[in-house]
């Protein structure tokens, strides 16, 4: 391979090009930046711009030979029907609650792997909890259906040990959905938390213990502040994941508890006629979600600096 | 009290969490052996017919084949784009770097539904039909941020010494790229490659909105789950689960070994040659 490249240097075109690359900052800039710029344009900037434009259309696609008519009605329709506003608010409450629950569930797990378990076993324990995440969202939803259905594993177990009143309705409500979604989100919480906790110096904890700080105090004054970055990153990731969930709420959630992402998805899954409305809703959701997470991150970072 | 917490409560919670993760999957695998047309417990008689029947199901096999093709295509695109993007990020600094990273990572932070839908509108505009190519493109959009992060992490650990030494010995930029930078990055590249394959294979939302009438495996499974369940679905889900988890574990091990080896061979390489 190298000999081939050295061979190439005999050709003046190749030499000229590599020399130009080595000497001219402009050529370097052009070559280095062309792929990122095209990619950003083609996958992020243009599709989002297109979506913003479509959200102001009266109809899409615009009929042949006609010019597009502009309107604000798509945005207005969000506020007109309580159906949409409720789904929107429900999404934010649900995502916030699930994020906090995920944090509560995953923090001790991450702490155990990063700080308590024997050093030599950490990678293996981490792999053990990561392994189920190589399974798709749909398969994991199905696994929970098999668990929670009226004739599923849990109900079968409950009637086996003689609990009266079985089958208990476990599926198709917010509880079953939450159980399923935490199954989906815990990895995104685990990895940032683990990374942050692992960095905490054991000596600091030991020193605090020697100086007589009880366990809860070491946790509040040392572990929690030092793992703040991990908490903020994990919560942001999980929130954004939950707010965009489309499939699992349809498989595990109740019919009366539609989330906003599902509403948007269904607008698009049905027919092309209402795409402008779906676009407007997408922009509302994205803007609100990013603002919400941005605010959360800003508050925690400022507090961090003030406290330190 | 604190000792008790460390040595009893935390391990207890950990293993409880492991049970929470694995029990549903094991229960589903068992359901695939139920000798009945319905998904229900308890299981009185067992059969392996679902596991063998489902492998003859044409639709399932076609969906799996499409998923596999899409995974390979989208992974090739993701790595081919992610590599130069990572180089670009590594070479910029200050505000430009921050802006570049933010724009590159943005698709990973958008709600997935919104990302998929914006691509759905956009591909119609540029004249691309829904189908295999559109799904692969959509998956690449989702994967590139991860590829960039994985390559950048590795790139940041690489000193300038090796490239400078090669340059002093007369190597041009192409030789430095091919003989020094790419070999150093190879564990990250392989890791990104395998991670992208899994990411694409698992994806539902982008496949659903960009696939049109073409169904990848998760889309097919979703459609069937909405009609009703039979143990055959549990059987095929279990087969796919074992395949992807096995692949994931293998990939993780392979990449970890490889990056350890390349570190030792780059620092003590002269001796071995």
Key traits:
heterodimer, A: 308 residues, mainly alpha, MetI-like fold, 2 domains, 15 helices, 76% helix, extended, B: 273 residues, 12 helices, 81% helix, 0% strand, globular, disordered C terminus
Architecture overview:
The complex is a heterodimer of chains A (308) and B (273). Chain A is an all-alpha fold and 308 residues long. Chain A folds into two domains: 2-47, no CATH class; 80-307, MetI-like fold. Chain A is built from 15 helices and no strands. Chain A has helices spanning 2-8, 12-23, 25-55, 73-80, 82-116, 122-130, 137-148, 153-160, 174-199, 202-210, 215-226, 228-243, 247-252, 260-270, 275-307. Chain B has 273 residues and is mostly helical. Chain B has a single domain, classed as MetI-like fold. Chain B contains twelve helices and no strands. Chain B has helices at residues 2-31, 49-53, 58-91, 94-109, 112-125, 132-156, 161-168, 173-202, 205-210, 217-227, 231-267, 269-272. In chain B, helix 3 (58-91) packs parallel to helix 6 (132-156). At the A-B interface, helix 1, helix 2, helix 3, helix 5 and helix 6 of A face helix 1, helix 3, helix 4, helix 5 and helix 6 of B.
The helix-and-strand class of chain A reads mainly alpha
Count every beta strand of chain B, where a strand is a DSSP E run of 2 or more residues.
0
Strand content of chain B: under 5%
Overall geometry of chain A: extended
Output the radius of gyration of chain B: 23 Å
Mean pLDDT of chain A: 84
The CATH topology assignment of the largest domain in chain A is MetI-like fold
N to C succession of SSEs of chain B: HHHHHHHHHHHH
Mean pLDDT score of chain B: 84
> What oligomeric state do the depicted chains represent?
heterodimer
- Largest beta-sheet details of chain B: none
Cα separation of the termini of chain B: 57 Å
CATH topology of chain B: MetI-like fold
Rg from alpha-carbon coordinates of chain A: 26 Å
Largest interface pair? A-B, 91 and 89 residues
Supply the CATH superfamily name of chain B. MetI-like
Share of helix of chain A, binned: over 70%
Number of domains of chain A: 2
């Amino acid at each position: 391979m190298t000999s081939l490249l050295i061979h190439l240097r005999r050709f003046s075109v190749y030499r000229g090009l590599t020399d130009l690359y080595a000497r001219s900052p402009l050529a370097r800039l052009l070559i280095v930046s062309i792929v990122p710029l095209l990619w950003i344009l083609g996958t992020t900037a243009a599709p989002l711009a297109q979506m913003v434009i479509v959200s102001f259309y009266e109809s899409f696609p615009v009929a042949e030979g006609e010019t597009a008519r502009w309107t604000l009605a798509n945005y207005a329709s969000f506020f007109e029907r309580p159906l949409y506003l409720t789904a929107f608010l429900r999404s934010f409450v649900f995502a916030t609650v699930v994020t906090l629950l995920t944090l509560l569930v995953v923090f001790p797990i991450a702490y155990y792997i990063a700080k308590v378990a024997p050093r030599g076993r950490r990678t293996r324990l981490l792999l053990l909890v990561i392994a189920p995440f190589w399974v798709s969202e749909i398969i994991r939803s199905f696994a929970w259906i098999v668990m929670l259905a009226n004739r599923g594993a849990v109900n079968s177990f409950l009637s086996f040990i003689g609990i009266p009143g079985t089958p208990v309705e476990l599926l198709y409500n917010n509880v079953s959905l939450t159980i399923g979604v935490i199954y989906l989100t815990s990895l995104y919480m685990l990895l940032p938390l683990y990374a942050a906790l692992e960095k905490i110096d054991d000596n600091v904890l030991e020193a605090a213990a020697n100086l007589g700080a009880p366990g809860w105090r070491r946790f509040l004054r040392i572990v929690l502040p030092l793992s703040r970055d991990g908490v903020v990153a994990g919560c942001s990731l999980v929130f954004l994941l939950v707010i965009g969930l489309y499939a699992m709420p349809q498989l595990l959630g109740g019919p009366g508890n539609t989330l906003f992402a599902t509403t948007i998805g269904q607008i698009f899954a049905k027919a092309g006629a209402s795409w402008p409305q779906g676009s407007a809703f997408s922009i509302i959701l994205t803007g609100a979600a990013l603002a919400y997470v941005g605010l959360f991150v800003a508050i925690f970072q400022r507090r961090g600096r003030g406290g330190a | 009290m604190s000792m008790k917490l460390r040595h009893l409560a935390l391990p207890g919670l950990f293993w409880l969490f492991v049970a929470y993760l694995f029990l549903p999957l094991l229960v589903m695998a068992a359901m695939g052996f139920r000798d009945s047309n319905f998904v229900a417990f308890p299981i009185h008689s067992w059969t392996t017919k679902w596991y063998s029947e489902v492998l003859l199901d044409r639709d399932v096999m076609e969906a799996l084949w499409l998923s596999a093709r899409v995974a390979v295509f989208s992974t090739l695109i993701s790595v081919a784009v992610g590599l130069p993007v990572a180089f670009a990020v590594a070479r910029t600094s200050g505000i430009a770097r921050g802006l570049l990273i933010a724009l590159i990572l943005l698709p990973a932070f958008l709600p997935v539904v919104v990302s998929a839908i914006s691509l759905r509108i956009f591909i119609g505009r540029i004249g691309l039909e829904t189908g295999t190519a559109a799904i692969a493109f959509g998956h690449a959009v989702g994967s590139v941020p991860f590829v960039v992060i994985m390559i950048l992490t590795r790139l940041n650990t690489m000193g300038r010494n090796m490239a400078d030494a090669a340059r002093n010995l007369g190597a041009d930029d192409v030789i430095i790229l091919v003989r020094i930078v790419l070999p150093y990055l190879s564990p990250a590249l392989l890791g990104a490659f395998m991670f992208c394959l899994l990411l694409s294979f698992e994806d539902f939302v982008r496949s659903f909105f960009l696939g049109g009438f073409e169904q990848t495996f998760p889309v097919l499974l979703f459609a069937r789950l909405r009609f009703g369940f039979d143990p055959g679905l549990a059987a095929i889900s279990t087969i796919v689960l074992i395949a992807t988890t096995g692949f994931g574990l293998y990939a993780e091990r392979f990449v970890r070994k490889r990056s350890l080896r390349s570190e030792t061979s780059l620092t003590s390489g002269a001796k071995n040659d």
